[in-house]
UniProtKB/TrEMBL annotation:
Keywords: Bacterial flagellum, Cell projection, Cilium, Flagellum. One of its GO terms (cellular component) is bacterial-type flagellum basal body. It comes from Cellulomonas cellasea DSM 20118. Belongs to the FliE family. This is Flagellar hook-basal body complex protein FliE. GO terms for biological process: bacterial-type flagellum-dependent cell motility. InterPro entries: FliE. Pfam families: FliE. GO terms for molecular function: cytoskeletal motor activity; structural molecule activity. It is found in: Bacterial flagellum basal body. The keyword Protein biosynthesis does not apply.
Length: 111
């Protein structure tokens, strides 16, 4: 039994829709026939999403400093950047928690 790589997760895509495994396993082996066998490309994509999260947080921090010093012309820019950063962080934490839960469940099945 092999575990397919996760690919295509980005900030604007639902983790369930991105993985495509909502319908469950197919075939006699229990492995989705459309699963990617590209090795580490899915992991690299997930790291790209984390880089995107870091960029959103740094933009939010820069705008907050500008707002405090009075250099920011429109406070709505900061509000939007902070909301995007918060939402991306919550999505990343939710995906991480689900991955840890899945790993724990697999370990329980092997015992």
């Amino acid at each position: 039994m092999s575990i397919p790589a996760i690919s295509g997760i980005s900030a604007g895509v639902s983790p369930v829709a991105a993985t495509g495994y909502l319908s469950g396993p197919t075939g006699a082996t229990g492995v989705d026939a459309g699963a990617s066998t590209d090795g580490g490309a899915g992991f690299a994509s997930a790291l790209g999403s984390i880089d995107n999260l870091q960029q959103l947080q740094s933009t939010s921090n820069e705008l907050s400093v500008k707002a405090v010093t009075g250099d920011l012309d429109d406070v709505h820019d900061y509000t939007i950047a902070a909301a995007e950063s918060k939402l991306a962080l919550e999505l990343t934490a939710a995906v991480r928690n689900k991955a840890v839960e899945a790993f724990s469940e697999i370990m329980r099945m092997q015992a």
